[in-house]
């Protein structure tokens, strides 16, 4: 999939654990892993908004299109 999710990069910048991130966003750690590993087929705007609020970033900081 040419869309790459960069949650791990943003978490590392903030030294935030997956568990803390999942709790603050309202996701399970398993669902965060699905997003991190590129196995997600879709992301709700409400989830993307919550992720951006928690990480204080823009959607473009979390999602990147790369040519295959």
Automatic annotation (TrEMBL):
Q: Which Gene3D superfamilies match?
A: lambda repressor-like DNA-binding domains
Locate the transmembrane regions by residue number: none
One Pfam match: HTH_26
Residue ranges annotated for the HTH cro/C1-type domain, each copy included: 13-62
Q: Which CDD domains match?
A: HTH_XRE
* InterPro entries listed in its UniProt record: Cro/C1-type_HTH, Lambda_DNA-bd_dom_sf
Please give one Gene Ontology molecular function term for this protein. Answer: DNA binding
Q: What is this protein called?
A: Putative transcriptional regulator
Q: Which organism is it from?
A: Kribbella voronezhensis
